[in-house]
């Protein structure tokens, strides 16, 4: 994998959709998970899964309807259970603050393209480009985050090669779709980064 400067930071402000539940334990630390609803300017709600350690909660657990600010990072892992989405995207909260405010969803990522960008046009003629960005963590692991760009930004992104280092600013969004299986249809939720701005990084 490439090395050099890396960044993965997100700030969210919204409302807890369901009370926090235990997610898993790792190295004797318990992690809790809850869905956070964040409203876009268009009025559409993004429902994003937030992971937080019990230590970071400091004795106060998110309840349905709580208004909170989350500061953290976006994380991914492969779901090998055969149920639900293969790539699971969550927000790992480093800080959690109970406070009132405007809904917020701001994300900055620096990483490298690990797949060839896919540029196309929608049936309505809009330019769109799908990207997969690998963002390094400490200790040699990486998060693989699907991103989507529109318009003239999509045209620019379509010209990048695998391995190109980029810094993206945007928002983390949720999208519900129907997956057709052999004997039924299943409603699933996908998560992706909607890119608002982008710049290539200098090669280190």
Keywords:
204 residues, mainly beta, OB fold (Dihydrolipoamide Acetyltransferase, E2P), 2 domains, 12-stranded mixed sheet, 2 helices, 12 strands, 61% strand, globular
**Into how many domains do the coordinates divide?**
2
- CATH architecture field of the largest domain: Beta Barrel
Proportion in helices = under 10%
SSE sequence, one letter per element: EEEEHEEEEEEHEE
| Distance, first to last CA | 13 Å
Instruction: Provide the β-strand percentage band.
Output: over 45%
SS elements, strand count: 12
CATH level 3 topology of the largest domain: OB fold (Dihydrolipoamide Acetyltransferase, E2P)
* The CATH superfamily title of the largest domain: Nucleic acid-binding proteins
Number of continuous helical runs: 2
Uncertain regions spanning at least 5 consecutive residues:
none
The CATH first-level class of the largest domain comes to Mainly Beta
Helix/sheet category: mainly beta
The gross shape turns out to be globular
Q: Please identify the oligomeric state.
A: single chain
Largest sheet: 12 strands, mixed
Query: How large is the radius of gyration?
Result: 18 Å
Q: What is the averaged pLDDT score?
A: 90
């Amino acid at each position: 994998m490439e090395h050099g400067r890396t960044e993965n930071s997100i700030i969210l402000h919204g409302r807890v959709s369901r009370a926090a539940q235990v997610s898993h334990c790792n190295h004797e630390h318990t992690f809790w998970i809850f869905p956070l609803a964040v409203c876009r300017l268009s009025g559409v709600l993004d429902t994003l899964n937030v992971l937080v350690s019990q230590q970071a909660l400091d004795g106060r657990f998110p309840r349905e309807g709580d208004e909170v600010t989350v500061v953290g990072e976006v994380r991914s892992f492969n779901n090998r259970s055969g149920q639900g989405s293969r790539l699971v995207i969550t927000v790992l909260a480093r800080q959690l603050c109970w406070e009132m405010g405007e809904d917020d969803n701001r994300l900055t990522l620096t990483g490298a393209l690990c797949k060839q960008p896919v540029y196309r046009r929608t049936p309505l003629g809009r330019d769109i480009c799908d990207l997969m960005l690998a963002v390094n963590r400490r200790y040699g692991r990486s998060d693989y985050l699907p991103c989507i760009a529109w318009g003239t930004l999509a045209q620019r992104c379509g010209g990048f090669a695998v391995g190109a280092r980029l810094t993206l600013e945007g928002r983390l969004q949720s999208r519900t779709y129907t997956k057709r299986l052999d004997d039924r249809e299943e409603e699933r939720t996908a998560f992706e980064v909607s890119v608002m701005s982008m710049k290539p990084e200098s090669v280190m």
